[in-house]
Automatic annotation (TrEMBL), chain A:
<protein>
    <submittedName>
        <fullName>Circularly permuted type 2 ATP-grasp protein</fullName>
    </submittedName>
</protein>
<dbReference type="InterPro" id="IPR025841">
    <property type="entry name" value="CP_ATPgrasp_2"/>
</dbReference>
<dbReference type="InterPro" id="IPR016450">
    <property type="entry name" value="UCP005522"/>
</dbReference>
<dbReference type="Pfam" id="PF14403">
    <property type="entry name" value="CP_ATPgrasp_2"/>
</dbReference>
<feature type="domain" description="Circularly permuted ATP-grasp type 2">
    <location>
        <begin position="87"/>
        <end position="463"/>
    </location>
</feature>
<dbReference type="InterPro" id="IPR051680">
    <property type="entry name" value="ATP-dep_Glu-Cys_Ligase-2"/>
</dbReference>
<feature type="region of interest" description="Disordered">
    <location>
        <begin position="494"/>
        <end position="553"/>
    </location>
</feature>
UniProtKB/TrEMBL annotation, chain B:
<protein>
    <submittedName>
        <fullName>Alpha-E domain-containing protein</fullName>
    </submittedName>
</protein>
<dbReference type="InterPro" id="IPR051680">
    <property type="entry name" value="ATP-dep_Glu-Cys_Ligase-2"/>
</dbReference>
<feature type="domain" description="DUF403">
    <location>
        <begin position="1"/>
        <end position="308"/>
    </location>
</feature>
<dbReference type="Pfam" id="PF04168">
    <property type="entry name" value="Alpha-E"/>
</dbReference>
<dbReference type="InterPro" id="IPR007296">
    <property type="entry name" value="DUF403"/>
</dbReference>
Length: 553, 321
């Protein structure tokens, strides 16, 4: 049994018993899977951790991995993306549970989108009220009756998961429009292997860097059939977007063009991009902007970011759009309430991951029950994202809550209320390298092409303010590298067995200083056409010979 | 120009490029080795034993090769002639011999690199984070070649320097291909086993993004091998290296039509081009790589015969002076 090293240190790490700490169990002993990490962190010490942190900031600034945030003193431009150097570890069985739960949820959401724009069976079955669906701001009348190839709408999905005080995983939010953050998952892993490689040495961590390939394969899989490889593009609203780094990252990693609206044009219901050699057909678009802006003819007419006629091309089936138009209806916070019922209705399965208890304020009874308890609940607007407009009851002054109550009474259908989740904590390094508990959530990323594939782990977001539960990057949250461990963890890492087949014998490296000796050899064997086969022979001597006689001068 | 100087420049180029390739390879394998497990198809598995084999070492039992041994012996061990520090050391000695031919800035860039690599704190950095050491070598290498192209007269001297660099580049890439992706014609399922290796290999030569932009398909074993062998648009492919070696030698040679190495190189370049176009790449890549490497060894000998043969050994010259 490893000793509880850190609790003997002067900088005492004390997780609160009120929350679930993912590294230390109650009593300060590291959990089994975390003890090698704790030992290694201890060996590293706060000083080295702090200096690695400074190197990290410098590297991120150099590489331009930055994020615009809103701090206490107003907007902060271009700060290095805050990666905490203490990783978050998910054991294999934990991950399997999450993965199955997510896949199930995404399948159900995909069914729901299909149903909403076609038969509306779930409405007829009396499960989700039609009035609620059509009143969602992301409901897209324009795509009624369109079924994309393979019936896949939610090609890219990211659900926000949290861990409650009892350690159980719950879904806090779905995101099936344009979830962002995957680029940070990949960059975080690269940075970790460079900055603190020693932390990895007792673990076998599942890699994440195949995400771009998964995404590209999915985008190709849903593209309309073509003789050659389908042309895929990433569509960004432009370089001023706060997630532009990610758009460029994905385009670069997939090796496809990053396009803006002005690069795209629709002719005869076919989408093209303008290239130096004329128009080139586009088969598949990974779009990173909201429905509202994509086509001024069908959605917001004042959009300058859109491509006129795109929805028509989409309807004609000449181009695949990921995610499909109209998926926003499924990740609305009011619809969220119904997801467990959707899973049972469409799939006939019990939900693997639970929702957080949610109250729909459009229901007068629930509203009446919520209003007196506002100081114990979280209240969210239904169609916002990124933590905007969220009121956390226990942390909000009484007068603001009174004002909020008036708003809720006036427009109850635009709000939901949720029980406060006691987010789990993970040790997090401060500027001085000392560890303290911070709250975290988890956003895994799924890709739905022919099947649903989920990258091991995901983006762990950390609230950098002690006690705070606001983890959004746009509100000053940080992130952690998330390690999903291989099955059958062993502390003694096995050496790779892959290259067990003996590599072919190669000619030895040559060294210029041996040239005169070689030269004679060469001249002697110049008539021998097979001299190359013999390259080993003249060089065998060089290995024992001194590397450079010039060095002795 | 003096045959001795040409010879020194040729090997200066080779040593610089070898140092950079070794650093890139070690870095690629190190970061890949930190995650995942060998039988995962997504994992990068160019292993430590493979590296030893690439560097021409004897590997009897691949499983016994330990990461830390390989890292330290191939990076900062001055007694190991294949280590990065030895390559840079030889390059520095070579550059010192030809200080009158190369520009002052080049000499300073090479000499500073050598001095920094010899400082003690680098071995501590290698233990805690090898990335920074390899990053340094890569950056310095880019600086040296950048300074060269900016300050060195494009004369015969620069041609021999470049020829050495490009021929070494082709040799290193061929070595990696032969060890990491030994694709043979009789293997039915080329893809499945070696795909992980393919990505590792691309990462190790620094060509992941170039591949993604140039090739629409997945980075599986066969397309990656074809890319590294035939893609002339990628500067570090074998075909591109052969082509530029040919170009610089044609520039340096007073009568290129009578030059053995130039004839060989143009035939090799045409062969590669023909295979890439007419046959869509070779099925038996292992054999092709071996043949190309042998041909390059002959080119190397031809170069020595034609251009350096008139010179006495530089070792003799310096020790007697």
């Amino acid at each position: 049994m490893p000793e509880p090293i850190i609790i003997r240190e002067p900088t005492v790490y004390r997780p609160s018993p009120e929350f679930f700490d993912e590294v230390f169990a109650h009593g300060g002993m590291p959990r089994d899977y975390a003890s090698p990490l704790v030992a290694e962190l201890h060996r590293l010490g706060p000083e080295q951790l702090a200096s690695a942190g400074r190197r990290r900031d410098a590297i991120f600034m150099q590489q331009g991995i930055t994020f615009d945030a809103t701090g206490e003193d107003g907007p902060v431009k271009d700060r290095p993306f805050p990666l905490d150097l203490v990783p978050r570890i998910l054991p294999a069985e934990e991950w399997t549970h999450i993965k199955r739960g997510l896949a199930q949820r995404i399948r159900a959401l995909n069914h729901f989108v299909d149903d909403v724009y076609h038969a509306r069976e779930i409405v007829r079955a009396g499960i989700v009220p039609w009035k609620l669906i059509v009143s969602r701001s992301h409901f897209a009348r324009a795509v009624h009756g369109i079924r994309p190839p393979g019936g896949v709408y939610c090609h890219v999905a990211g659900c926000d998961l949290v861990r409650d005080a009892d350690g159980s995983w719950k879904v806090l939010e779905d995101n099936v429009r344009t979830p962002s953050g995957i680029s940070y998952v990949l960059e975080n892993r690269v940075a970790m292997t460079r900055l603190v490689p020693q932390l990895f040495q007792h673990y076998r961590v599942r890699p994440v860097d195949h995400y771009p390939q998964l995404l590209l394969a999915a985008l190709r899989a849903v593209a309309p059939s073509t003789d050659e490889e389908a042309t895929v593009v990433v569509w960004t609203p432009g370089s001023l977007n706060s997630a532009y780094f990610e758009h460029a990252f994905l385009a670069r990693q997939m090796g496809v063009e990053l396009v803006e609206a002005s690069d795209l044009v629709v002719r005869d219901d076919v989408l093209y991009m303008r290239t130096t050699s004329g128009l080139e057909r586009v088969h598949s678009v990974y779009r990173r902007l909201d429905d509202d802006f994509v086509d001024p003819l069908e959605f917001r007419p004042d959009s300058l970011l859109g491509v006129p006629g795109l929805v028509r091309a989409y309807r004609a089936g000449t181009v695949a759009i990921a995610n499909a138009f109209g998926t926003g209806v499924a990740d609305d916070k009011a619809i969220y309430h119904y997801v467990p019922e959707m899973i049972e209705y469409y799939l006939g399965e019990k939900p693997i991951l639970d929702n957080v208890k949610t109250y729909l304020l459009s229901d007068p009874e629930q509203l009446a029950a919520v209003l007196p308890r506002l100081d114990q609940l979280v209240v969210k607007p239904t169609s916002e994202s990124g933590g905007k407009g969220v009121f956390i009851g226990p942390a909000t002054p009484a007068e603001e809550l009174e004002a909020l109550a008036d708003v809720l009474r006036a427009q109850p259908e635009k709000w939901i209320a949720q029980e406060v989740v006691k987010l789990s904590t993970v040790p997090t390094a401060g500027v001085d390298g000392g560890l303290s508990a911070r709250h975290v959530d988890l956003r895994p990323f799924a890709v739905f092409g022919e099947t649903i594939k989920i990258v091991p782990g995901g983006l762990t977001r950390v609230a950098m303010v002690p006690g705070s539960m606001i983890v959004n990057s746009s509100r000053g949250g940080g992130s952690k590298d998330t390690w999903v461990l291989e099955d059958g963890m062993d502390n003694d890492r096995a050496e790779p067995t892959m290259a067990a087949t003996l590599p072919p014998a190669l000619p030895d490296l040559q060294y210029g200083s041996e040239w005169s000796g070689q030269q004679q050899q060469q001249q002697q064997s110049a008539e021998d056409p097979d001299i190359g086969r013999d390259v080993r022979a003249p060089c065998a001597r060089t290995r024992s010979a001194k590397p450079s006689p010039l060095g002795e001068v | 120009m003096l045959a001795r100087i040409a010879h020194e420049l040729f090997w200066l180029g080779r040593n610089l490029v070898r140092a950079e390739h070794t650093a890139r390879m070690l870095d690629g394998v190190f970061s890949a080795d930190l995650q995942g497990r060998p039988d995962d198809p997504n994992r990068v598995t160019l292993g430590w034993g493979s590296i030893l084999a690439i560097m021409g070492g004897e590997v009897d039992d691949v499983a016994r090769v330990r990461r830390d041994d390989v890292l330290s012996s191939l990076t900062l061990d001055p007694d190991n002639p294949t280590s990065v520090v030895s390559c840079i050391g030889r390059a520095r000695e070579g550059a010192r011999t030809v200080r009158d031919v190369i520009s002052t800035e080049m000499w300073e860039a090479i000499n500073t690199t050598n001095l920094t690599l010899l400082e003690g704190d680098l071995s501590a950095r290698l233990r805690t984070g090898p990335y920074s050491v390899y990053q340094y070598v890569k950056e310095r290498s880019a600086l040296i070649w950048g300074t060269t192209s900016r300050t060195m007269l494009r004369d015969e001297a620069s041609a021999f320097l470049a020829a050495g660099g490009r021929i070494e580049s082709a040799d290193m890439v061929l070595r990696m291909l032969r060890v990491a992706l030994p694709i043979q014609a009789d293997v039915e399922d080329v893809g499945a086993v070696r795909d992980g290796q393919a990505i590792a290999l691309l990462a190790a030569v620094g060509g992941v993004q170039a591949f993604r932009r140039a090739v629409p398909g997945q980075p599986n074993a066969l397309p990656v091998a074809n890319f590294l062998l035939y893609e002339r648009a990628y500067p570090d492919s074998v075909a591109a290296s052969v082509e530029s070696t040919l170009n610089v030698l044609q520039r340096a040679d007073s009568s290129p039509r009578a030059s053995e190495p130039i004839l060989r190189l143009s035939r090799l370049g045409a062969d590669l081009e023909f295979q890439a176009r007419a046959e869509g790449g070779s099925r038996d890549l292992a054999a092709t790589c071996e043949a190309v490497q042998q041909e390059l060894a002959r080119v190397d000998q031809d170069i020595a015969d034609r251009y350096f043969a008139g010179a006495a050994s530089p070792g003799v010259v310096t020790s007697s002076s």
